[in-house]
Amino acid sequence: MLSVELGNLERVELRDIWASEAADFTPWLARAENLSILGDTLNIDLELEAQEKSVGPFRADILCKDIGNDNWVLVENQLERTDHSHLGQLLTYASGLQAVTIVWIAAHFTDEHRSTLDWLNKITDESFRFFGLEVELWRIGDSPAAPKFNIVSKPNDWSRSVARAARAIDDAELSDIRQMQ
Length: 181
Hints:
Layout: E1 9-12, H1 14-17, H2 21-30, H3 32-42, E2 46-55, E3 58-66, E4 71-77, H4 84-97, E5 101-106, H5 111-123, E6 129-140, E7 146-153, H6 157-172, H7 176-180
Parallel strand pairs: 4-5, 5-6
Antiparallel strand pairs: 1-6, 2-3, 3-4, 6-7
């Protein structure tokens, strides 16, 4: 039997690599090769439009174009667990930039914030997509740290297709009076 030596995965603390969200993580993520990793996770081809994009008196972390449909993609990130402040920023920036794909990246999602993204996906039409991703860093031995994005919230296409079908049935079953109204 052939003996193959395997390494052990070691988790790396995010702050050991990126001390600052704005000065380290955001510029790292905005590089084409790293947006490609993010895009592969989301199944979206991303092209950087702006880093620290002005939204009135505020600044959104990253604004991209979805190459597949030419829509705006907002990426808001944090190196800690999710908080209400970043949720507010996410919605404010999405509104101000007319983003239709909204991506929130954090070290850890609380159940409440994951539930909020799930709810937003449920109540908005299929043209809007909300994603929640947890970022991790891993290495084997002395190798460079490698990022891993884990989707914790995403649009539920099945639920949306069922809701769309239900609306179509409701519309088809309108009485003559309801149709005139």
